[in-house]
Amino acid sequence: MFNLSKKFNKISFILLCLGIGIGFFLIIQLKTPVVRVVDPISPYISLQDTKDVLVEEQDHLKNKINILQTDITKSEEELKKYTASQKTVEEIENYKKNIGLTKRTGQGIIIKIDDSKKAEVSIDSITHAADLRDIVNFLWGVGAEAISINDERIVFVSSIDCIVNTILINSTKTAPPFEIKVIGKPKDLEDQVNNSNNLKDIKKRVKNQGLILEVIRKNDITILPYDGSFVIEYAKIAEANE
């Protein structure tokens, strides 16, 4: 009985200490002044400077990729002169064409989508990343052979995302108006885009909110090669699947 009482007193003492500790912690929290940003402009300027540095680095890397692609093309042309290498080079060129690493030219359409020019701006009167994704997915489904948005080549690892009010295509900052170049059969593509049963949400906003959507047939469209990184995008895909 004595041991049980002694054990009970020990537990009570521990609980008392724990309660005092928690109470002391809460008092400190209540008395601690809330830290406020004295100058709200400074963080914004810092973020803006960081963004400018990243954009500059990205432009530098893209230029480097373009130079390397030019060097590779020259090397392939040299290899073609040797009969033993010609077939291999042609196979490589075909693979590059299929994944978007070569410039494409041909017939097709140009789709222009832009924010409404009405005075009042609403969520339905501006172009969203989701709109561009919907259009791209639709175009692949109706026979597009190559696509670019504001000269950013769309390939199987391309991303079209939105951060606040900025749309990023292949991690490159873009802004409206958006020019979507599409190589394929011009009439078929134009008919599909203009069909009232397709892209209904966008066309509803064109009618009601003044969103701008135009489709033009072209016989001489040029779509530039993809100049982003496949390695980084593969890493993102692998991470997402874990």
Condensed summary:
The protein is α+β, with helices and mostly antiparallel strands and 242 residues long.
Structural topology:
Layout: H1 2-31, H2 41-79, H3 83-99, E1 104-114, H4 129-141, E2 146-149, E3 152-154, E4 160-163, E5 166-169, E6 172-174, E7 178-183, H5 186-194, H6 200-209, E8 212-223, H7 230-241
Antiparallel strand pairs: 1-7, 1-8, 2-3, 2-7, 4-5, 5-6
Describe this structure in words.
This protein is of the alpha+beta class and 242 residues long. The protein folds into two domains: 36-99; 103-241, Protein of unknown function DUF881 (Alpha-Beta Plaits, 2-Layer Sandwich), CATH 3.30.70.1880. The protein is 54% helix and 19% strand. The protein has a five-stranded antiparallel beta sheet. The chain has a three-stranded antiparallel beta sheet with strand order 4-5-6, with helices on one face. A hairpin with a 2-residue loop joins β5 (166-169) and β6. The model is unreliable at 32-39 and 233-242 (pLDDT under 50).
Keywords:
globular; Alpha-Beta Plaits; 19% strand; single chain; 242 residues; disordered C terminus; alpha+beta; 3-stranded antiparallel beta sheet; 7 helices
